[in-house]
Protein: 6-phospho-alpha-glucosidase
Organism: Aerococcus viridans
Amino acid sequence: MTLKKQSILVAGGGSTFTPGIIMMLLDNLDTFPIRQIKFYDNDGDRQKQIADACEIILNERAPEIKFIATTDPETAFTDIDFVMAHIRVGKYAMREKDEKIPLKYGVIGQETCGPGGIAYGMRSIGGVLELIDYMEAYSPDAWMLNYSNPAAIVAEATRKLRPNSRIINICDMPVGIEYRMADILGLKSRKDFVVRYYGLNHFGWWTDIRDHEGNDLMPKLKEWVHEHGYVTPEELANTSEEDVEESWMHTFEKAKEVSWLDEDTLPNTYLKYYMYPQDEVAVANPDYTRANEVMDHREKQVFSECNQVVNYGSGAETTLKADDHASYIVDLARALAYNTRERMLLIVENNGSIVNFDPTAMVEIPCIITSNGPEPLVTGEIPRFQKGLMEQQVAVEKLVVEAWSEGSYQKLWQAITLSRTVPNARIAKQILDDLIEANKSYWPELS
Ligand code: NAD
Ligand code: G6P
Ligand code: MN
């Protein structure tokens, strides 16, 4: 059977992740054929550096694919099957502020968790809704696969404010951890096992992991994680070829202490910010946060590689390579395009899957993906510990979306106060007032 060729738009063409996505799409053309790739960004200069390099690589490796990069929404969104969206409204300059402002008050400064994530959410909602509106205007049958962060808040905003839109919100963190689980278990691939998992984005737990014969792999994994977190045996022995930054290694180690809280499950790494906030503040450098690290490493490296491809006029020697994690995006697109019924974790409306939890919450759970969209699986009842934590966190996320659409200062103050990462309402207000000042040109006006 010949597969219908797809037309893809990468929104946030200037993202540091764009070259990795393109290399990954090139690696998968046999099962996900492409006729056209377009890039869209609202910063034409930033996008051009990435696009010029990708154009050269595409011409060399798949000249049949038509390529354009544009800042014009109509040109970008017309004749598209899939929008792969990864924008960062305010870019790294604003991420740096999201991280540094809370730290001034001794509170977690993080891209998606706590007040920093809330601030980023207040910027991101408008940007992602704009992309949805362009898609609906110019390619109403397309699907948007969105990984623009903070995914939890963006997902709630799209559920509430664009209820009929064809957007699916996704995260690579469970996939990234499952790569590590495969290493820990000595398996070749995360596809050698099937998982059950539930939670909110960056706030969830694995409850069951089995191989294809049905053997329970949780006991062996738990034993390892309780002692080493998600650090792999190769990393422990210093024989790993992966170059993982110090700050991420700390996160994978810290999962150990998070895992001790519940004997029945294995945790997402980001729970460390909510279970041990003071520890994370203590190891943070308020003058040099993750945004600085990314600007100095990933951003520099990606842009200088792209500039080099353009200078050589060839990508034959490039070190740009497919981002392994990103392969789940093509799994998702393929499932929607060709009805593969792949099983994946997605961020979807609960709608009864977790029976003792708000049906309108956006939860991260396993779904079967058909050409008609995701069919979420039933989770059942969840225990009191997780339920309590999730109810608090989902209230934070819903309050942020209400604050954004109503322009409510009070609700945003409540949201920050309710975050487990923030010690009291006074500090919440001080952080909020600083964030308002820093985000003047991005947030709706609050009163
Ligand atoms: P980046 O700053 O390098 O790239 C983002 C691009 O978006 C920039 O080129 C910027 O100009 C563009 N942009 C900003 N606002 C826009 C708008 N309104 N319209 C169009 N383009 C706009 O950022 P990055 O580090 O490469 O990350 C990109 C996004 O992907 C972030 O939101 C990041 O958090 C997210 N991400 C999510 C996951 C996940 O698990 N969901 C994984 C990786 C990255
Ligand atoms: C993980 C998360 C993403 C997040 C990324 C941050 O992959 O799932 O949601 O964007 O980490 O990584 P960075 O390297 O930008 O700090
Ligand atoms: Mn994520």
Observations:
- The radius of gyration is 21 Å.
- The chain has 17 helices and twelve strands.
- Residues 151, 171-173, 202 surround manganese (II) ion (ligand 3) (CB under 6 Å).
